[in-house]
Amino acid sequence: MLRLTKERILWVDSIKAVGMFLVFYDHIAERVAAAGSAIAFYQLKFDHAFLMPVFFIISGFFFKPHGNFNDNFKKLFLRRLLPVFVFGLLFIPLWITYFYMKFGFVDWYQIIVKILYYLKGSPQLNLITWFLVCLFTCEILASFIIPKIKSRTRSLFWGILILVTGLLVCRYHLSIAKLTGVTLNTWYIHEAIVAMGFYFTGFSIFPFIKKIAATKKWMVYLLLPIFFFIAFFTFNLNSPTEDFTVLMVLSQHGYIIPFLITAFAGAFFLISLCIILPFNSLFEYIGKNTLYLLGLNGIFHHFINGEIVDLYAPPDSVVWTSLYCSVIVLLSMLLCAPIITILDKNIPQLFGKTSKEGPFLPNLEKFKWRDKVREANKIYVKNKLLKKEN
């Protein structure tokens, strides 16, 4: 069985930090693009071509099966889905406030519909957390397959095969839905197959990348511009229409071959860049709090970015658009910092850090739910009998 022990690697934190900056950047850029900016649109289009594949690739770096299926499911549920549900719960009062301030009344029907979508694995209250749902499904599938593969070379082969299969499944999802009754991306099952291809790739190549980063960094400097130019000159080739962008959240990939070329070239460009970038405390902070930032970005995506762009949209130039979006990203992340501090100090177990103890919650991974329920039931029965005797 293949296993990989998780350890903290600085350049991986750098990838998370730069990637999270781009997530915030893209969600303000899409509002600027909607206001008529061609520059923002093409920046968005370039980032979307490889950004989500990067996150799935680095998620695969540290794959480690967790014992039997029940243990594995429990840990993945706590680390991936629990934060999705908690962020959704926290966003309900935000939606109530937003509807009231925007329209003068609370659209309870829309709020209830958004809540019900969680039954299908679609986190409509905070759409940014779709990545965690998709990753959960991806990792459940991967936990069945990867341990049965005897080498990383075979794992890479299977990853490419699964990736192409996933792209075809997404393309012909209507025909598949007629046979299976499963509509597109119920629990992101269709896109999880695509994600699993990138996940397998990350798992397979991680030791190779780690070795290059440690002993042959000169190769990174050599390959960095090559990956960039491949990504830059291919990101627009997978577009069926001029206004097309890759959107994995909608299983929207474009033409398969150009998508794969740009996704891998862009991903390896970002990984190479982060290997040679000087590590700093900001990268460390973002790398350790990526999940918090992912969920909190939903506040800006759903409620704030559009209002900011309505107040002022930048001139349509590379300099102004980039500066405008970057400043808003930095301010947004700064506003997230005190919220992260409060959540991480008090209830980190609800946001992926499930093995922590206290101050209000125990280590959720070691918490014996069944034993506690049995104890509570015994106490209840005992008290009931005492009442009858009295």
Automatic annotation (TrEMBL):
Residues 10-335 form the Acyltransferase domain. The chain crosses the membrane at residues 50-69, 81-101, 127-146, 155-174, 186-206, 218-235, 255-279, 291-313, 319-343. InterPro entries: Acyl_transf_3_dom, Nod_factor_acetyltransferase. Keywords: Acyltransferase, Membrane, Transferase, Transmembrane, Transmembrane helix. The keyword Nuclease does not apply. Its EC number is 2.3.1.-. It holds the Pfam family Acyl_transf_3. GO terms for molecular function: acyltransferase activity. This is Acyltransferase. It comes from Autumnicola tepida.
